[in-house]
Amino acid sequence: MFVNTMPRYEILSADAIGVLDRGWRRIVSEIGVQFAKPEAAGLFAKAGQQVDGDVVRLDPEFVLEQVAKAPREFDVQARNPANNVHIGGDHMVFTSVYGCPFVREGDVRRDATLDDFRRLASLSQAYPELDSAGGVICEPNDAPLDSRHLDMTYALQTLTDKIYMGNVVSGPNAADTIKMTEILFGGAGGKGRAAIERTPATISLINCNSPLRWDDRMLDAQFEYCAANQPVVLTPFLLMGAMSPVTIPAALAQQLAEALAGIALAQLIRPGCPVIFGSFLSNIDMQSGSPSFGTPESAIGLLCTGQLARHYGLPFRTGGGLNSSQTADAQSAYEALMTLLPTFLAGTNFVMHAAGWLEGGLVSCYEKFIIDIELLRMLRVEFTPLEIDEASLAFGAHEEVRHGGHFLGAQHTMERFRECFYRPLLSSTANFERWLRLGAKDTAARAAEIWQRKLGEFEPPPLDDAIRAELDDYVARRRRELGD
Predict the structure, then answer these.
(1) Pairwise CA distance, residues 160 & 480, whole Å
(2) Mean pLDDT of the residues in the chain
């Protein structure tokens, strides 16, 4: 995983943070937050908060008391210990695209399948720039709705040995993820549960139904994961102009209200359970009403979010390779960079959608996956601190070359030429004539060759036969119980 020790880019003054702090306090205390699950409202009522049906008006100081119980940093274990991750501080964890019902492969846009899910999981395993395949890398529409979460979790557990994200469609689906995680980390007889409660082994995305509503399905999943001490990413879903007011400060205040309220609930479920302050903040196109991604406004909101999360002592999620483009073209790349660059500048701790996102999150794209891997590789180099010492000044090379010479054949160059500069995975530096001889392939065509070759070479990481058999038995039993 990448450790970003570069300075953070912070754009909010102390006065601005004070205004935003007063803003979220007014929202939670005067308007309140809806929790569409009786058990959630009941926990708040028991804690002395004002509850009217499923709307909870919160004392801001109470909220901050609960938030303070969440760890500032924590570890998540992978089945391969070399792929364990640390959440918080200077650490950045990158996951693949999440939640897309369609895939794009070359010029073909179609419904996503379970085979697509497996192939994208394999690509995520193959590239070290990703710390996780994520969760719903795509939505496999050819698998039964009631049991596809079993297939997805099984694929993440067997085709990768990195951390993975849990299913959040329902409470029972979350419980299945936890049971399968127990099996992977020690068996279902109690040893596995103790192992994952001691060190979490899965992260799950809990989205707020903005504005100001946490719905029952997400809350059902949150209760399961928090009770098992598995971290959740509590994420307001804000498209300015639709789910929040059109101004960035208003969206930031609403984001704080929603996220901090969700984090407070997590601590009522299980004090001290790990959480991640989530942000998904962009805007709509005010002419068409369509979501827009990779916008300047989303980049500004991202930088503010990082500064605010640090202010409240929380690890945070935001950013990724977001874009609105319909295909893997220049727009998809420059909009993705508009989001990925501030992701690094902000020092984001957990980055979803880091590879493969296309068409506003509707499409998981194979070619875009490779484009994003190239961007991640380049940004990791760019955000590695420059070491400057006497040796790096290469005075001896000047002594050798002297005036008007050439450094290409100098001893200093010959000793370092293999590793002195970044070597691209995807980009072409060929001259025009050589590029023509190689087939005049554009970026998307080269990306297609790379992912196809990588999948052809892929071998799943080894998994203990007894664990695989136990997972197989669990999936088969649950599939029968679900009627699929």
Answers:
(1) 26
(2) 97
